[in-house]
TrEMBL record:
It is found in: Membrane. It comes from the Eukaryota. GO terms for biological process: vacuolar acidification. Residues 51-120 form a coiled coil. Pfam families: V_ATPase_I. GO terms for cellular component: plasma membrane; proton-transporting V-type ATPase, V0 domain; vacuolar proton-transporting V-type ATPase complex. This is V-type proton ATPase subunit a. It is a multi-pass membrane protein. Essential component of the vacuolar proton pump (V-ATPase), a multimeric enzyme that catalyzes the translocation of protons across the membranes. Required for assembly and activity of the V-ATPase. InterPro entries: V-ATPase_116kDa_su (IPR002490). It comes from Pavo cristatus (Indian peafowl). Keywords: Coiled coil, Hydrogen ion transport, Ion transport, Membrane, Transmembrane, Transmembrane helix, Transport.
Amino acid sequence: MASVFRSEEMSLMQLFLQVEAAYCCVAELGDLGLVQFRDLNANVNSFQRKFVNEVRRCESLERILRFLENEMEDVVKIVKLEKYPETPLPREMIDMETVLEKLEAELLEANQNQQTLKQNFLELVELKHLLKKTQDFFEAETNLPDDFFSEDTSGLLELRTTPSAAAAKLGFTAGVIKRERVIPFERLLWRACRGNIYLRYTEMDTPLEDPVTREEVKKNVFIIFYQGEQLKQKIKKICDGFRATVYPCPESATERREMLDGVNTRIEDLNTVITQTESHRQRLLHEAAANMWAWEIKVKKIKAIYHILNCCNIDVTQQCVIAEIWFPVADAGRIKRALHQGMERSGSTITPILTTIHTRMAPPTFNRTNKFTAGFQNIVDAYGVGNYREMNPAPYTIITFPFLFAVMFGDCGHGAVMLGFALWMVINEESLLAQKSTNEIWNTFFSGRYLILLMGIFSMQSPWEQACLFRY
């Protein structure tokens, strides 16, 4: 009972492990969660430690896993297992690297192919709209009445079959530009060409998707009439400056119709290829999602083990790992069993050796908790962790905290809501734990479910006490 009101009595021991068994022994101690390793290499740079290459390999695997998780987003759901996977052996890390690197390469190739196909699809769709809008423009201008054309515009548009128009034959450039750039584009064309051009533009009916950012973009189709090679070069430079895409557009209506038919055929074929590419990409993501959660846990465990091994010393013969550990005296038997299991798992025949170290260093504070007292202990630790073997105020807050809360928040209605919510979490705690939620707010409420339960009970009790006191 003394351990409830005071922190646990701790012991400092020196641990000698065979190099081949060190990984598995540290893994077993990590699963136990009762040991604190001292850093014996505090003066050594992080990049000069023994297992720095293994830590870098783990960071590379974490980068690949983050890439896969970003690719899945909300489209593919990550499968979570009921039990946490066991810590993999060092040789299993090589297999994991091979699988993840191959998966990353295939997914990068699929993404690159998909992006290229979507870029080609975007260009074909733009060309399709350009041909349609250009054809509509020429047909509309051809059907204008005779008195529409003045002396200046008849020669410019070359829509009248007169000898003077034939002598002043014009060229034209057609392309696509983002809608927000149309006004400055038109202004610069007019000023740079000194008004010697004729610009027409119209909005594209269908919004397009950028293949890189996957955002919706709105564009306009434009056609510019000009005369002379010098103006043509100016127009080309201005189009490049505004990142407008210029497409070849035939002069005759027949050629435009034939080109449009060919573009439609290519769009249909490209749609089929894009669908097949997306199916292959989704298959890769589903294959990764089936093992994603287990991979993340395994990589975190491996990285943590090598971080701990970097805190240990290795003797001059390179055959023995030396560590110093703090652990509760009451759990010495569990520590020895965990070390023995790690030795058996690694296949070693040399038993780990524990020797007591007498020191004047202040031991770490360890307060043992369970699912009921953990919430109250967290509140106390938020204000500060007590010294070694100091009285632990957490057991007293089990009564005082809900009582003071009820003094401030004495209301039967709100208390009943809190009580009902806490009871629901307590009754269904096993199923809720199995969900392994990553929502930080929900996990905060769930870890304090017993605290909320007592707060609800005390809040409902407080108004009745006040009413009784007022009556008497």
